[in-house]
Design brief:
Serine Threonine Protein Phosphatase 5, Tetratricopeptide repeat; disordered C terminus; 2 strands; 7 helices; about 270 residues
Length: about 270
């Protein structure tokens, strides 16, 4: 019998097996979804990509659950046990997590914006790789320097200069020796026409980089500080935007554009600085 005939004879069985496996996987996922909604307990189960928007999961046992990419927006998760759960790229936007235990949970790319985390337990530095702008009730222990800086980066990229300035200020208070946050705050301040404060931030970051042996960056930041100071001086002059004043303004903005990608660089997961 020709080989091609044999292949045709066995091909349907392979297709049927593949289809059966898919159906089994979908059935298992549906069982897990039904279980968590009705019993509020699904320890270690797989709920990846599940649609749980507005779900009532108060005091639910979701320990070790696989919730990658699930949509839990506006869900009620007060008191839920989410220890060691995988919440990578999960949406918890606007969710209530009051008193929930997220110790050891993976929050890589997790959307916690506008969520209520009052009384929630988080591992140290857990928010460094998550999005948590507008979240309420976050304890200071979870707001590490990197988490604060990265949140400032998001606000910065969205053009929310005042919010970015505040977050970078918080990051600086957490670790005043990290020059990147000083640069970022300086740019945020410059965008708000706080040129004197911006120039001071650039000069201080230049001193930090000089101490670190990064003389080239120190020189660029000193130049940016001088340009911003000149911009402030020229903006008070009668011929603002003309002649040398216009050149100073262009020079200042060119320096800031050069520094912006540096300031916007996230500190995690690549580590501090550059």
């Amino acid at each position: 019998m020709p080989r091609s005939t044999c292949r045709l004879r066995w091909a349907p069985w392979g297709l049927m097996l593949g289809t059966a496996l898919v159906v089994h996987a979908e059935a298992h996922a549906n069982e897990s979804l039904i279980k968590v909604l009705h019993e509020r307990s699904c320890e270690g189960c797989s709920l990846a990509d599940a649609d749980l928007v507005h779900a009532d999961l108060r005091d639910a046992n979701l320990r070790n659950a696989k919730l990658m990419r699930a949509n839990l927006g506006q869900a009620q998760l007060d008191g839920a046990d989410l220890r060691n759960a995988d919440l990578s790229f999960t949406s918890l936007r606007g969710a209530s997590l009051r008193g929930a235990d997220l110790t050891g949970s993976r929050l890589y790319g997790t959307d916690l914006r506008d969520a209520d985390l009052a009384g929630a337990t988080l591992s140290p530095n857990a928010l460094e790789e998550a999005h948590w702008q507008g979240a309420q009730g976050i304890s200071n222990g979870s707001r590490s320097h990197a988490a604060l800086h990265n949140a400032g980066v998001e606000a910065f990229q969205a053009g929310h200069w005042s919010e970015a300035e505040q977050l970078f200020s918080d990051a600086i208070r957490s670790n005043p020796e990290e020059p990147l946050s000083w640069v970022a705050r300086g740019i945020s301040r410059s965008e708000q026409a706080k040129d004197e404060l911006a120039a001071a931030d650039f000069r201080y970051s230049a001193a930090l980089y000089q101490r670190l042996g990064a003389g080239a960056w120190a020189t660029k930041l000193t130049s940016a500080a001088d340009s911003v100071s000149k911009r402030r001086f020229e903006s008070d002059a009668p011929n603002e935007g003309k002649g040398m004043g216009g050149q100073f303004l262009q020079g200042a903005m060119a320096s800031l554009r050069m520094l912006a990608p540096i300031a916007a660089k996230a500190l995690v997961p690549l580590g501090l600085g550059f």
